[in-house]
Amino acid sequence: MRNMRVFALALFSAGCASAGGVFPEAGDGASALANAERQIAAAQQAGADSLAAEVLNSARQHVAVGKTMQGRDDDRAAMHGRQAVADATYARALAARTAAERQQAAAAASLNALPRGGTE
User: Fold this and answer.
1) What is the pTM (predicted TM-score) of this model?
2) Could you tell me which residue, 12 or 71, shows the higher pLDDT?
3) I need a surface site. Which of 21, 37, 71, 120 has the fewest CB within 10 A?
4) What is residue 31's three-state secondary structure?
5) Angle between helices 74-113 and 53-69 (to 10 degrees)
6) With contact defined as beta carbons under 8 Å apart, do 32 and 87 qualify?
7) Whole-angstrom distance, CA of residue 57 vs CA of residue 63
């Protein structure tokens, strides 16, 4: 019974040691922030500056905070970069949705402007 406990403890210790620590690494902060800046530029091209400004500003803020953390805490910088990517992706999708809703409303207005009935 004692040998079984020692074996289980050794197995558990080996598993924890191979995991690299309690928290996994978030990745390279510089590349995450560079990717975030590319996604923010793509969102701007999609019109997110005017159609999803609040979300896009959140992405920019995450990039700014991530840049201040670079060098000191690369994992946190990478996490801020990932959050900025998520915000920029959402801003781009929100801008596309808003633009589509506006086009749909314009098409509906044009359709309603047509005379009712059939041929006259």
Assistant:
1) 0.72
2) 71
3) 120
4) helix
5) 170
6) no
7) 10
φ, ψ for residue 79 (rounded to 5)? -65, -40
Burial of 32 (0-12, 13-18, 19+ CB in 10 A): buried
- Tokens of residue 51, six digits: 């159609």
H helices present in the chain, as ranges = 2-18, 29-45, 48-51, 53-69, 74-113
13/27 Cα distance (integer angstroms): 25
The CB-side HSE value for 15 (13 A sphere, CA atoms) comes to 6
Tokens 């409303």, located at residue = 105
For residue 60, give the nearest of 49, 72, 47 by alpha carbon.
49
Within 10 angstroms of residue 120's Cβ, the number of other Cβ atoms is 5
Contacts of 46 (CB under 8 A, 6+ apart): 92, 95, 96
Interval 28-69: pLDDT, tens: 889 999 999 999 999 999 999 999 999 999 999 999 999 999
The ranges assigned to domains in the chain are: 26-104
